[in-house]
Amino acid sequence: MPAMSGCDIVLATQNATWSHPAFGLRCLRANLGPLREQCGIVELDPRASAEVSANAILRFAPRIVGLGVYIWNVARLTDVAHCLKERRPDLILVLGGPEISYEWATQPIATSADYIVREEGEMAFADLCARLLGGRRPRERVVEGGRIDLTRLCLPYDEYTDEDLATRFTYIETTRGCPYGCAFCLSSLDRVVREWPLERVFEAFDALVRRGARRFKFVDRSFNLDADHAAAVLQFVLDRLRPGLTVHFEFTPHRIPDTLQRLIARFPPGSLRVEVGIQTFDETVHARIGRRQSTPTAEETLRFLCEETAAHVHADLIAGLPGGTLAQTARDFDHLLAFGPAEIQVGILKRLRGTPIARHAAEWGLKFDPTPPYPILETPHFPADDLARVARLARYWERLGNRREFPNALPLLWRDGRSPFEALMNFADSLFRHLGATHGIPLEQYACALFERLTSDGLPVEEAARIVRQDYACGRHRRRPPRALRRHEDRSRQ
Fold it and tell me: What is the pLDDT, as a whole number, of residue 4?
């Protein structure tokens, strides 16, 4: 990437988190051809104001700015786009990304844009920039990217800096598209799966490892779809495993063939992370959203991954799907927890622009928040109050359960055969009544609340204090226990 004392083209976005680099911008820059060296990438600080973000872009005096627009950054980038055009009316502003590829006419950010590039943009953006810099300004404001033949594209991996590779995830792509038609997912709009030539991907992987990359995230939407393709990638990675190297794959919950099972089972602890989108075990809901998933097969896949491999298994559930209920969400969570995945993400259905579910919202009686990230607010089967309760539970679970802050104390909430979901929901309701928040809560407050809940549920005071205190002291930060728990410790020693 150039030193960027000045660039004709600047590509910018705000990432979801700092550790995840802007893969899409790197794909665009890699395919600019002769314009590549005139282009720089700016990854905006999410804590900065719109004016500061605009300054970070304008200091390179660009003629063209391309903004990558996603569900998590559209609100902030709307303000950034306005600042850019206010400061530099002559600037050519191009928008792209999944959030602006659909329903752009109703979006405030579109009013600041000179051009919008829809869907896959590598070739369309390169052609647009060449025309603009050559003085041939297109009349059409919306440029169709379409579905690209991957063999015609340049790989983006040289766009990672050494600092990226040393400190952030390294995204790798071996396929694009997904053959499944889940109504809530944007991938359902591109059901033709295309493969990158593996020899090129493998060569790039080796080069990245030599440069210091250690944390790889494969972004394929359904990695295990083609068993032969997946086996080739897994074997390649296994042959190059070394201490500290980790890989992340997204699996569909379909049967994993024996050939893949044997390869997955060979990964040592800490080297493999697998994300499995369960979403729900309810096959009536599956049918409603066009999801092809067999519950027995999903269970078999989970059992294998959780019991017969050393993989870190992250499993997803979605609450608020059409036809779904609070009772069904509770059953899904309890059933999934019994398999023992390392993490369970309880997501709330979102209305992604362009997805089939967005077109059926009125028909199915779905009410979504009109502001990003467009979470479901209410359905005919899931009242608003219950959805809000699940959203709070999901936040508390992410902090306490998925981060393993209280690995011994938290399960005591559902001892004696109680429903884990119901116990956690009651705890979440109590937390919110007392704290009035789901973010920014010190761990000490969680520890005290958990202790109080356990004792009110009948666990002896000294036992509850001892277990919560040990979890708190032995966590990632090894803090000194809260004073309230130390008092019980002192009492038990008397």
Answer: 52
CB 94 within 8 A of CB 64: yes
- Sequence length of the chain is 494
Q: What is the DSSP string of 54-95?
A: HHHHHTT--SEEEEE--TTTHHHHHHHHHHHHHH-TT-EEEE
Residue range 9-147 forms a domain whose CATH class is alpha beta
Q: What is the pLDDT of residue 189?
A: 83
CB 38 within 8 A of CB 10: no
Indicate the pairing of strand 194-195 with strand 175-176. Answer: antiparallel
Summary mean pLDDT of the chain: 94
Burial profile 430-440: b = 16 or more Cβ within 10 angstroms, e = fewer: ebbeeeeebee
What sign results for the dihedral spanned by CA atoms 322, 324, 325, 330?
negative
Work out the pLDDT band at 3, boundaries 50, 70, 90: very low
| Residue whose tokens read 């897994």 | 234
The whole-angstrom separation of Cα 227 and Cα 263 is 11
Q: What is the pLDDT of residues 275-313, one digit of tens each?
A: 999 999 999 999 999 998 999 999 999 999 999 999 999
Question: Tokens standing for 417?
Answer: 């055969």
* Paired tokens of 21: 């680099």
Q: CA–CA distance from 421 to each of 150, 285, 383, 418, 430 (Å)?
A: 44, 20, 17, 9, 14
- Which pair of structure tokens corresponds to residue 434? 């007392």
Which residues partner with 94 through β-bridges?
Answer: 66, 115
Provide the pLDDT confidence category of residue 477 given band limits of 50, 70 and 90: low
**Buried residues in 243-260 as b, exposed as e (16+ CB within 10 A):** eeebbbbbbbbbbbeeeb
Task: Give the SS3 label for residue 128.
Answer: helix
Tell me the mean pLDDT in the region 311-330.
97
Residue type, 154: C
Omega cis (within 30) before 156: no
Tell me: the pLDDT tens digits for 340-362?
999 999 999 999 999 999 888 99
- Compute the average pLDDT of residues 204-224: 96
Is residue 378 within 8 A of residue 367, CB to CB? The reply is yes
Q: What ranges do the domains of the chain cover?
A: 9-147, 160-382, 407-494
Longest CA–CA separation in the chain, Å: 86
pTM: predicted TM-score of the whole model, two decimal places = 0.93
- pLDDT tens digits, one per residue of 45-69: 999 999 999 999 999 999 999 999 9
With a CB cutoff of 8 Å and minimum separation 6, the contacts of 429 are 389, 392
Strand partners, 313: 274
| Annotation: CATH topology of 160-382 | TIM Barrel (3.20.20)
Determine the average pLDDT of the residues in 476-492. Answer: 64
